[in-house]
């Protein structure tokens, strides 16, 4: 008998939207969906720099959860778009805390994938008393080995064709350090140069994120203002090692003891390989690691989506 997998909840609209001034000229867009009296969960999007989408609302039972989504500094509907000023991991951790306090949420559940898992861990280790549970996917902690795997040598050996396209905008000398070289181009005053770099940067992710190829539409995303903002912000974080000490989030995972956590990880995730999820699981007392045997990095892959929905349903209480 074939396995029956869960699919996302039906589309919903927010019943409240707002903007929160967080200082340094930044204003965050946020929205609240689901049950106003439900269990509060804060959704932390990936990237950094990608923003939230309506699909993210559908990961939670709208009758049982009060779902808070927000676009992080410089991306999505937050302003100013693409700003790198005062845009660091510590800034975003404090933004989560400001939003939680602003909305009077008390203790909250955190949900995050990829960079969203990084931010969730950074917040949870800073404010464990404010977290009830965590559901994390595609674990990324910003260690040098993780960045080098994806932007130097590792994923490039599995996707040599896509790697060649990724490096195409760079000169031969620039290819020795793609992240630093793309930064120069993503900060270029000429929008055409920025757009070409952003297209290459975003296509590399779009074409390696899933076990099912996502080539359709990958290039079209590259020239938009949103794509340039995404590439600029993500590159900005990686150039600065995410403003984290080497191994910090794994080292400090003991601070999460007592916080139930489900870690969902695709076996064939080439963006954030399973070793990081494994290391986190071993360092986080009481965490639960679920390896999805037929999945890559994307949350939308059927096996991963199923596990995430089962986890959010379990924690709904």
Automatic annotation (TrEMBL):
<comment type="similarity">
    <text>Belongs to the peptidase S33 family.</text>
</comment>
<feature type="active site" description="Proton donor">
    <location>
        <position position="297"/>
    </location>
</feature>
<dbReference type="InterPro" id="IPR005944">
    <property type="entry name" value="Pro_iminopeptidase"/>
</dbReference>
<feature type="domain" description="AB hydrolase-1">
    <location>
        <begin position="39"/>
        <end position="300"/>
    </location>
</feature>
<dbReference type="InterPro" id="IPR000073">
    <property type="entry name" value="AB_hydrolase_1"/>
</dbReference>
<feature type="active site" description="Nucleophile">
    <location>
        <position position="114"/>
    </location>
</feature>
<dbReference type="GO" id="GO:0004177">
    <property type="term" value="F:aminopeptidase activity"/>
</dbReference>
<keyword id="KW-0645">Protease</keyword>
<feature type="active site">
    <location>
        <position position="269"/>
    </location>
</feature>
<dbReference type="GO" id="GO:0005737">
    <property type="term" value="C:cytoplasm"/>
</dbReference>
<dbReference type="GO" id="GO:0006508">
    <property type="term" value="P:proteolysis"/>
</dbReference>
<dbReference type="InterPro" id="IPR002410">
    <property type="entry name" value="Peptidase_S33"/>
</dbReference>
<dbReference type="Pfam" id="PF00561">
    <property type="entry name" value="Abhydrolase_1"/>
</dbReference>
<keyword id="KW-0031">Aminopeptidase</keyword>
<protein>
    <recommendedName>
        <fullName>Proline iminopeptidase</fullName>
        <ecNumber>3.4.11.5</ecNumber>
    </recommendedName>
</protein>
<keyword id="KW-0963">Cytoplasm</keyword>
<keyword id="KW-0378">Hydrolase</keyword>
<dbReference type="InterPro" id="IPR029058">
    <property type="entry name" value="AB_hydrolase_fold"/>
</dbReference>
């Amino acid at each position: 008998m074939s396995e029956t997998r869960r699919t996302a909840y039906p589309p919903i609209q927010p019943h409240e939207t707002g903007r929160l001034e967080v200082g340094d000229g930044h204003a965050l867009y946020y929205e609240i969906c689901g049950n106003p009296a439900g269990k509060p969960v804060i959704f932390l999007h990936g990237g950094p720099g990608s923003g939230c989408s309506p699909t993210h609302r559908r990961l939670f039972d709208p009758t049982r959860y009060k779902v808070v989504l927000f676009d992080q500094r410089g991306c999505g509907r937050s302003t100013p778009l693409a700003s790198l000023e005062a845009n660091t991991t510590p800034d975003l951790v404090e933004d989560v805390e400001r939003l939680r306090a602003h909305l009077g949420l008390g203790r909250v559940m955190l949900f995050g994938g990829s960079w969203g898992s990084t931010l969730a861990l950074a917040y949870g280790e800073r404010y464990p008393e404010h977290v009830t549970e965590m559901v994390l996917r595609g674990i990324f902690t910003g260690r040098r080995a993780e960045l080098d795997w994806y932007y130097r040598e590792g994923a490039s050996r599995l996707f040599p064709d896509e790697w060649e396209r990724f490096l195409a905008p760079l000169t031969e000398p620039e290819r020795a350090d793609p992240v630093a070289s793309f930064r120069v181009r993503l900060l270029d005053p000429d929008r055409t140069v920025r757009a070409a770099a952003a297209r290459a940067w975003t296509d590399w992710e779009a074409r390696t994120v899933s076990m099912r190829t996502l080539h359709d539409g990958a290039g079209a995303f590259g020239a938009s203002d949103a794509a340039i903002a995404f590439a600029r912000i993500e590159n900005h974080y990686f150039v600065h090692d995410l403003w984290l000490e080497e191994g910090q989030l794994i080292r400090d995972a003991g601070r999460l003891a007592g916080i139930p956590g489900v870690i969902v990880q695709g076996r064939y995730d080439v963006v954030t390989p399973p070793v990081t999820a494994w290391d986190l699981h071993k360092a986080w007392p009481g965490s639960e690691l679920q390896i999805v045997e037929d999945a890559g990095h994307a949350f939308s892959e059927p096996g991963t989506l199923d596990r995430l929905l089962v986890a959010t349903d379990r924690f709904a209480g």
